């Protein structure tokens, strides 16, 4: 059975977000923005996983659309944490690029799902 790329990438992204947020809370004593990032960053994969059990194509597209919105929010929190110097630039770049990749994949899946008859 082939690996589901969006599930695998969104799960790996969630793991990286959990580790970053744990570090922010333990070492930087930052709780508010990291909680927001944790919620958005882990929600991407949760919605992707939920989409795999969708009851219809519309439900599938809806779950992936939520995942896409959450990835946009995660990018915002990453940018804010970087700009306020809570996270280093290299961490920001790596996670932001991962998030952008998820957005591109999700956008392609949503678009192709809507085009199918």
Walkthrough of the structure:
The protein has one domain: Up-down Bundle (de novo design (two linked rop proteins)). With 117 residues, the chain is mainly α. It has helices spanning 5-28, 32-51, 57-83, 89-115. The longest helix is centred in the middle third of the chain and has 27 residues, at 57-83. It is built from 4 helices and no strands.
Question: How is this fold's topology laid out?
Answer:
Elements: H1 5-28, H2 32-51, H3 57-83, H4 89-115
Helix pairs in contact: 1-2, 1-4, 2-3, 3-4
Number of separate structural domains:
1
What name does the CATH topology carry?
Answer: de novo design (two linked rop proteins)
Ends distance: 26 Å
CATH architecture field: Up-down Bundle
- Encode the helix/strand succession as letters: HHHH
Number of strands: 0
The name of the CATH superfamily reads: 23S rRNA-intervening sequence
Q: How many DSSP H or I helices?
A: 4
Shape: elongated
The CATH class is Mainly Alpha
**How much beta, percentage-wise?**
under 5%
Structural class, please? mainly alpha
Q: Which spans have pLDDT < 50 for at least 5 consecutive residues?
A: none
Work out the helicity level. Answer: over 70%
Give average pLDDT, whole number. 96
- Spatial extent as radius of gyration: 15 Å
The major sheet is characterized as:
none
């Amino acid at each position: 059975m082939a690996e589901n790329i969006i599930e695998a990438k969104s799960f790996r992204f969630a793991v990286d977000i959990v580790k970053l947020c744990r570090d922010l809370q333990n070492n930087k004593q930052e709780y508010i923005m990291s909680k927001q990032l944790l919620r958005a960053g882990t929600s991407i994969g949760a919605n992707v996983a939920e989409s795999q059990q969708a009851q219809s194509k519309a439900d599938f597209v809806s779950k992936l659309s939520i995942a896409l919105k959450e990835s946009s929010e995660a990018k915002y929190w990453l940018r804010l944490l970087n700009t306020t110097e809570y996270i280093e630039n290299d961490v920001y770049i790596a996670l932001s690029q991962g998030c952008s990749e998820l957005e591109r994949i999700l956008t392609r899946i949503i678009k192709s799902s809507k085009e199918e008859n």
